[in-house]
Structures are given as C-alpha cells and as structure tokens.
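Table S2 (continued). Query chain:
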Amino acid sequence: MTTSIRRYRQTKIVATLGPASGDEDVMRTLFETGVDVFRMNFSHGTHEAHRKNLETARKLEKEFNRPIGILADLQGPKLRVGQFKDGKIVLTKGQTLRFDLDESDGDETRVCLPHPEIMEALNIGDSILLDDGKVHVGVKEKGKDFLAVEVIAGQALSNNKGFNVPGIILPIPALTEKDRTDLDAALEMGVDWVAQSFVQRADDVLETRKIIDGRAALMAKIEKPSAVEDITEILKHIDGVMLARGDLGVELPPEDVPAVQKKIVRKVRHAGKPIIVATQMLESMIENARPTRAEASDVATAVYDGADAVMLSAETATGAYPVEAVSIMDRICQRTEADKAYRRIMKSDTPETESDASDAITVSAVHVAHDIEAACIVNYTTSGSTTLRTARQRPSVPVICLTQNESTARRLMLSYAVRSIHITNVNSFAETVEAAIKLTKEKGYTQSGNKIVMTAGVPFGVSGTTNVLRIADVE
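Corresponding output:
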C-alpha cells in the first residue's frame, strides 16, 4: 500500500475528467499532483466511461489509503437555437431576425427556437444573449408562436448556439429527463456529490434532494442571477455550492461578478457548507503550458475570498496540459495561503459562534489549537457536521476527520483544510484519542513532541453530540 499523500494547502482542487484525463495513469498523476475531488461532467461522455473513471478513483483510494471525492455534475436544460442552411449567418446591427417553432434549417431571416415556453415568458423590450453573450438581441414583436428580434450587437450566429435571458425566471424545470436518467446512474455508481445545474430558486432543488434521499450530498450550481437573489433560501436545502461564473458572467454585467463572488463565498462559508469557485480559472492552459498572469490572480482571488475549493474544467478534461494545470493551481493556492494578508483576511471574517454547544466546542478547539501551536485539530464525527463547523472557521492547521462512515470521509474531501481518515476499530473516546495520535503520526501530520486538539461526543458515536475537547501529546 502506498503511503498516504500529504497536501500542503488548505484550499482543495477539483479536476474534471474527460478524454485528456480518463485514463488510470493520468488520474493517478493528477491525484499525486494535487487533485482532491474528481468531477464527472454528465454533459459529455457515456455512463460507461463515467463508471470506469469512478472505479479507477476507488482503486486509487486503496492504493494511496486516502479518500477521494467524486462529483457528478448534471447538465440541466440547455437552451439553444436550431440550425442554419449554411451552418451560420452573418449579422448586422439593426437587422431583424425571427425566432419560431419551425424545425427546418434557418437563414438570415429566421431560425428555430424549440422552446415555446420561453417565447411565452418573454415580452417586447426583453433582451436575449446568444453564444455566451457574443450576440445581443432585443424583442420587438411577439406572436403566438414567434418572436421578432432586433440585433443590437454581434457579427455572426451559428448552429445550436446557446441563449440566455437575463433577469427573467424561466418557466422550465431545472431537472430534465436526461438529468433524471443521469442522476439515477450516478447514484447507482456511488458518487459522493451531485451538482444540479440551472437552479433559479429554492424550489428547483427540492425534487432532486428527494430523489437523492441521502445517497449523496447535493450541490447547487449558482449560475443564474435569480439564484444569487434567492441564495439564503437555497442554502437551507443543499449541502454545498458551485459558483459557476461562466453563465453567471453572461447574465450579469461582468463588472458585477467579482463582488457577487465575494458575497456568495462569504454567505456559503458562514453557513458552514463547502463552496467551489469554478469556470475559466486557468482557461488558457487548455492550449498553453502556462497560465496568464490574470488567471493566476483569479485563482488567488478565490483563495483570498475563502473558497473551500477551486475547479478546473476543460483544462483537465480536454486540455493539452492537464497535469501542469493542477500543478500550477496547487502552487498558486500554497503561495496565496502563505501570504500574511491571507491569514488576516480569514481571521477578520470569522463566522459568529452559534448558540449551540457543539459549535462552541468546535470554535474553542480552533482557538486552543492556535494558542498552543497544535499540529492539527482532530474531529471524531459520524455525519461530518463537527468537521464542517471546524472548516468554516478556516483554521491554519489541518483538520483531521476520523469517521467510521466511508461516505462522510469522501464528501468531506471537498471541505477546506479537511483530511479524512476512515477508521473502523474504535469503540470509545479513549480509543479514538489513541487512534488519532497513531494515525496523524503515521500520515505525517504530527511528530513526537507535537500536540493535537481533539473533539468528540459523549455518549460516544452519537451524531450531533460534540461536547468534549481534549489536548493530547504525541509521543
């Protein structure tokens, strides 16, 4: 069995699997380089390919004796125009274009928009953005089965380009038939997290949560302005958030996205739930071996904001330099966390202690660990709630999560500073302390002469009863 890998950063790295990385040797190298959670994008690939990747991850878990999180990302509704006779059309400002339900190939005058419910929701004066915002049109006439729009900006439009409708809650379900099929497959495979796309309001996640029924943790992708507005209510029904800045950056003015990012990261962190900052982080590394300085700064900003994790999409799924992308992201996270300003920022925005005994013990453990310069904080937890409480405090030392629940160990690999250890042979608090000392030393988190701060609950093994804090010496 290979020695467990040691990470020297608290912020986690999520990497998307695809043609460039769906190979056992590449996955092993990505994991060794810094990946904590693998993302399977159900917008692409077959169920068979995703299953193979998940099985590879489970094999790597055994090889490295370390839990690996698996995130299944559902596609959600994809709103697209139809096709054109010549593949694309040229646009001019002021030109009129008709969207209708006729499925025949379009031309310079019209194109199919196969979403009658969208036509119903739009009104004269509303804006539509196509092709990730490259084309902007405004509705100037509306009929029973068509929209006539005027081109405001854009030079060309090609087949099957997506469209966004800023500022309007669309009357379509967030969970499509494809999503339902993919969700069933993902749960049967045994994924740890499910990310739901196109969440507009809290109601959108309720059905998904019911289907999952505790078999995985549920994450809402925040990519619609309406979801930003309803984030407080959405957070009540989910386990984590992915801030997907691609679509969000199309529907919001670009100058608003940085402030929204800070607001959402802070809100989710204070709720004690993990948040991933995603999309276009090291985009140029799809083709280049080095990122731009702006991209490096973008990753660092997400770390300074206090994100639990940063994510790579096409960089590792289809890019030419997947391992290099993980490596530079790892180095950026480490260097940012080493900045004295980073620790000051984390301390200045510490969440308030809740009027709850478990939270009081958890917060005290973080303060004690700092005061006595402990090597790490150790939580014994069943559900993971104690570890999530610890992670939201953004401690400067690793949080070792000891749990007899394998699924808890895997889900927590997404959370800030957490190193999960799956244990099966402890039956009392005293045995847990002994195991903590032994395991943290074996895995390189401590050495003789160090101290650890440990929390657990009495009665032992009962979820939600964290009420003990102990300082232990490592011999």
